[in-house]
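Weekly sync notes, structure subgroup
Attendees: PM, AL, DS (notes)

Item 1: joint prediction request from the bench team. They want all two components modeled as one assembly rather than separately. Inputs as received:
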Amino acid sequence: MKKRILVVDDEPAMTRMIKLNLEQTGRYEVRTENLGRMAIAAAREFRPDLILLDVMMPGMLGSEIAAQLQADPELRAIKFVFLTAMVTKEEALRSSGQIGGQAFIAKPISADDLCRVVEEHLRQ
Amino acid sequence: MAKNPDNPKKPVKTPKSKAPNSKASRPDVQPIGPALAELLNPAINRGESGIGSSTGLQPPPDNSWDRRSGGEAAARARVAGPTEIDYVAQEFNRMLDALERQRDERAALVGHIEKLFRLARDVVLLIDPSGNVVEANDAAVAAYGYSLDELRGMNIRDLRTVEAQAAIDRDWQGASGPLGVLFETVNRRKDGSTFPVEVSAQTIDIEGKPYRQSFIRDITERKRAEQALHESEARFRSLTEMSSDFYWESDAEHRLTQRASADKSLSSVSVFQQGAQIGQRRWEIPYLSPDEAGWQAHRAVLDAHRPFRDFELSRLGADGTERYISISGDPVFDESGTFRGYRGVGTDITARKRAEGALQQEHARLLESERELLNAHESLAEADRLESVGRLAAGVAHEVKNPLTIIRLGTDYLAKQFSQESNQEVLDDIRAAIDRAEHVIRDLLDFSRQNPFAPRPTNINEVLDNAIRLIKHEIERRNIVIIRNRDDPMPPIYADPDRLVQVFINLLTNAAQAIGGDGRIEIVTRSICLSERDLEQTGTSTLRIGEPVVTVDIRDNGPGIPAEHEEKLFEPFFTTKPVGEGSGLGLAVSRSIVIMHRGSISISNRPEGGASALLMFRVDREHLTNEKANTGSR
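Output from the run, pasted for the record:
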């Protein structure tokens, strides 16, 4: 059974490219959401195994969405990984994928790296 | 010319013919033989008076000489008349007169001597061979308080104090010599009081017996004056010693004639390898200062016999250092006003000179500190400027990253969709371009870290450990060995470790990329006091010689830096790396971080090949203070 992945990013082109690449592997079912405030509703409805969450979004920050997911008993189990453009090369080197205890993917990322990171988190 | 009161125009006649004695003698005197008279007194015949008239060669008017000699007229030859017999008689009388006068004079002299003896201010004693006083004068009575009768018969021993009695035989030794003896002793008055005396004594022979005569002078006043002089001299010497190290005198030719040092400063005078010698002029001894003009000015003062103050000169000290003395002098003139030379004092002012020198150095150092501050200010301003640029770049970078991600993911997707070879090449070119853009953006973000600068005591070795761990993958991939060479313990530096790690990642990455593969990087960390040579190497103005610093030397065995690149190394966006490997910001960022820490960074080629990046940081001030405190209390 394919794993479900929800991609939340305010940029439609971004969510589309992520969806295309992940689905190209044939292992994932991907749904995208471009409005931060709709992310919780989408999660409740889609019940993903993993959410890829953009940090900087107009209206609602990725961290706020994450906090709501954590607070919701039904959604608490869903894993999430941040997507961020704010990470420097050195931070990326140092953090080994974790900032403030949270997993993250530093933009830009190649398709291969994206798939690898998603697979790693799903396996945990 | 004197005027005649009756006739002012008529000059006064000299009283040639009107002299009173000639008037009295001439009419009644029979002329004696003209030849003899002429021979005896030519003035008589010429009718002149003058001195001849008082010599008594003219016969007296009453034919008697008695009136002038006074008394004993019976013994005198009567002058019968103006014959040659008369003349002989006159001559006899004259000789008799002379004898009488001589006897009178002698009697007067004896009286005078007796009077002298009596009234002499000095005590005069005549002492018989057994030491008893035979005769004494008034001064003796006054000096000793004994009456003349008491004194006569006293032994001179009894006139001395008990203490002085013992020396009596020694004092009198040699009294029989032609010069007698001169000694000082202490005498005692009748009332028991004592007084110092100077005795001049001689043995005289009286009727074959050795009498002694003593002239005794009370020298209380002289002793007091001597004592006062002595005290005054001591006072002056003490003053001179306090204010100076030596006293000197020179002659009219400015040659040293005397030089006396106070004991305490003997050493300071002999500190010269070649000091002033008697007979030498000041400028004839090897000197270090003043210069020729200085000496000329000094000699001009000396030749003008003017006083001088604080003339400073220096000579080579015995210990090889320059030693200074300050000399003051006043000209000395004798009673006739003739210049005799100089006398003055000198002081070793080396300590003062050195203190002055130290002060000047301190002043120079202050100026240097001020310059450093300005430099530091400029560095900070530069760091600030770089940060502003960085922040701006960061905003841009963030905005660029999202589209880059989209392009990247799109390209990757398409690459999998189109398996055609020609398409793949195009897609690879796109991906390489994205990588380049990504590198630049990440470097820009590194350059502009949003974290505030947070310095704290930091161990440089730990920062290096961290940096090495972070680029371990890159290093291992290239098969490069890292060799550590560190001082332990390492004093902390005041730094932001998060920022420094960035510097070392940059430098180590640069080194690894320069080597390419199969090489070694040696990292040497040292705790040193900055030497002049070190400072030259860094070319920094923020660090000072003698300052405790921590140095990091990152040496690679790569190809080194081409000469034409050395100048541009730290310029932003200067890179020699292949497209996609570097943004050209690494060293610019590193430098701005080092400057922020008020450290220094320099990159150079090593003589043995490869490049070396040398960094220096101040040791944490607080650590130094504590260290000092600990050392002090130990």
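Discussion: The two ends of chain A are 17 Å apart (CA to CA).
Action: AL to compare against the crosslinking data before next sync.
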